[in-house]
Amino acid sequence: RIPRVVHRLDDHILLVTTGLHGDALWAATRLRRACQEHLLQHGQPISISQLARGTARELQHARRGRPLGCEFILAGMADNNGMIPVEEDAEDNGQQLPFESPLQ
Prior knowledge:
Elements: E1 6-10, E2 13-19, H1 21-42, H2 48-61, E3 70-76, E4 83-85, E5 96-98
Antiparallel strand pairs: 1-2, 2-3, 4-5
């Protein structure tokens, strides 16, 4: 059986993982819960940059007894002037780069 590496966190956010499958599932579950909590508290979906910053902060301060054995990329669509994140990880704090569609 091939482990699942693409996880839908919200209608507009996907998580792509590599590494230890258990750690990747833990990260996907935690991030999905963060998306749901934000929607319930604020009545609107979380932005990708907010999720990336929160994830970086949480992983930096997490005391799980060992480092997280997976890497991941957050990908999705945002409505902020055509900006979408290219790669997100705990050291990167959600760098956003302009996106130009090849279909235009």
